[in-house]
Amino acid sequence: MINLKIQRKKRAKSSFSMPFFLIPISFFLVEVFAFAFLSSAGSFPVWQFHLNDAPIDWSAVNFWPLAFGALWAVMLTGLVRAMPGTLASRIAYGIGYFLPLIYAAVQTGYFLLFKQMLWLSDFRYASEGSDYFSVLLEYPAFWWLCLIVMIAFGVALIVRFPKRKEEHWVWNATGALCAVIAICGCMLLPNAVFFHDKEVRYAGSDYGRAQSAQAAYDNMFNCHRLYQVCGVFQTAVKDVYTNFIYPITPGYASAQAAARQEIDSYFEARGDHQENEMTGIFQGKNVILVLMESMDDWAIGEHTPTICRLMDEGINFTNFYTPGYGGVRTFNSEFCANTGSFLASTGGYAFDYVTNNFDQSLANQLKKLGYSAKTYHYNDPNFYSRGVFEPAMGYDEYVCYADYSDPADKWALYDEEFLFNHEEIAEDFLRDGPKLNYIITRSAHLSYKYNEMLSYYALKKYPDYRGLTGSEEEDCMYVKAKIVDDLFARLIAELEADGELENTVIVAFTDHYTYGMDDQQLVMDRSEVTDALLVEKTPCFIWTPGGPDLEVTKTLNTADLLPTVLNLMGVETQCNYLGQDAFDENYVGYALFPNGSWVSQGIAYNVSDNHLIFLSDDAPTATAEFQKQMSDTVMDFIRINNLILETDYYEQ
């Protein structure tokens, strides 16, 4: 009798299964997980509601993603129930649950770092950031807790999958019917979201496009804006169709031809570039292009005497912005400075366009004049695929310092040392003939901790910076900026010793602001701005001995750098560029961001909270007409930028 009871208990235990209602709940929780970290009340993240001193204003929260998530939960549950047999249902559930969960985890994790989302086409290059895996350890404990609970919940449901009391076609048909109804709901619900576009000023005209839900949904110009309309499930599906399925359909070819015509019309309406008093003033000089990794404007000052001198004696662009298009901030700016176009805002890494014709690039334009062109950087050529992409942009060679150094030679890793401490690299850099040398620095790269490798090296060289400000991150940023300054001092000394200084022009720009600092409020305070949009302003200057001493206050962006340099070099080209020459009197100047925000003529507009910021007493009146014009400008700019890449425009 006792053995019989034990056997019955074992059978009861082995037959235990989860209740079926947990399946739709689990699907919906994926959306809730994404919502917690991707949504906000104004500028305050939803997941931090418990940290806010004041009660969170839930009326300011956009709950539409949860509505779409509920429909997707019903749809996926119906599909799971429609499967023939428990095994098929279990497999369908595992796929339907864990793929969206992985997608949500990557998106929320990326958003916590960069305040933007990735397109699926960017995911393929996630390994490019593997060197910064340690950043994961700095994610909020709440994020890790939620993710672990979600994984455990899904595994438990698969292991103890709900058993069917009876197998009947009616249940399968009911599941399929629920899925169909939910699909119809997902197709119709966006119209309910679009209804609120009427609350946007001038929504009946093009003015409202930048912040309208319908523009975000139809044009897909920004992944996070799309998520705010339709949630994480539907964002992923639209991404798959637009970037993976549609390009292989027959209608794609005709769309390409129409896109080329649209680009032509855009440039024709803007008119041809006209020569100005700055045209050709650097003609024939050697060019050194320097990407100053993470060098924010607030870090330049008493700690960077050489850079300050070059800015003071050269052309200093004091309102230069580096908008972040695509999913990789550094390579986005690198790509734009060299080719004149940003990465596509619709997703995809620049390598997707590696077979494009880049005849318009700085390297290719100068090589037509007899220049040689080389890139210099410490990192492996596989990182960001630079070993392939730099030649694609016209550079003759990507010179990796690690290829020339003994692993024991630690100096080979640092900016102010590796260029000239190795005889072969130094000779190559100072080679005969007209040349373009492109230096990619690393000294100011994240993270900003005393024990981080770059910080450790810099503090060993300048120990007085430890404890200088009372902030570990601020100390590290200043000492790293000091190392970058040492590079410029060394560069000038070596050029002068070689007799090349007088015949050289240095073009320096930054890839992005210091987004790698944990204390972003400190970044805003040091930048002396009150809006997150304005921290995107970064240093940019052009210097040559005895060259013009100018302070250019016009608002500019990374895309303007290439046409400006070509004008200064006196390069005549038939190429049209998205950006414009900074010295073109007809160009008012602007910085245009992939989410629809903009800065121009002393006024900034942040689309995330729909407000204007006046930066100058001389700013024009922000009339409705002016705002509509800027809205048109930013949306056209984003679209044309994307089309230039998609159509391989410069192949013409």
Topology:
Layout: H1 2-14, H2 22-38, E1 40-41, E2 44-45, H3 64-82, H4 86-114, H5 120-123, H6 141-159, H7 169-194, H8 213-219, H9 223-245, H10 251-270, E3 286-292, H11 305-313, E4 315-317, E5 320-321, H12 329-339, H13 362-367, E6 372-377, H14 386-392, E7 397-400, H15 415-418, H16 423-429, E8 435-440, H17 453-461, H18 472-497, E9 504-510, H19 520-527, E10 540-543, E11 550-552, E12 556-557, H20 561-568, E13 591-592, E14 598-600, E15 603-606, E16 611-614, H21 624-646
Parallel strand pairs: 3-8, 3-9, 4-11, 5-12, 6-7, 6-8
Antiparallel strand pairs: 1-2, 4-10, 9-10, 13-14, 14-15, 15-16
Helix pairs in contact: 2-3, 2-4, 2-6, 2-9, 3-4, 3-7, 3-9, 4-6, 8-9, 10-21, 17-18
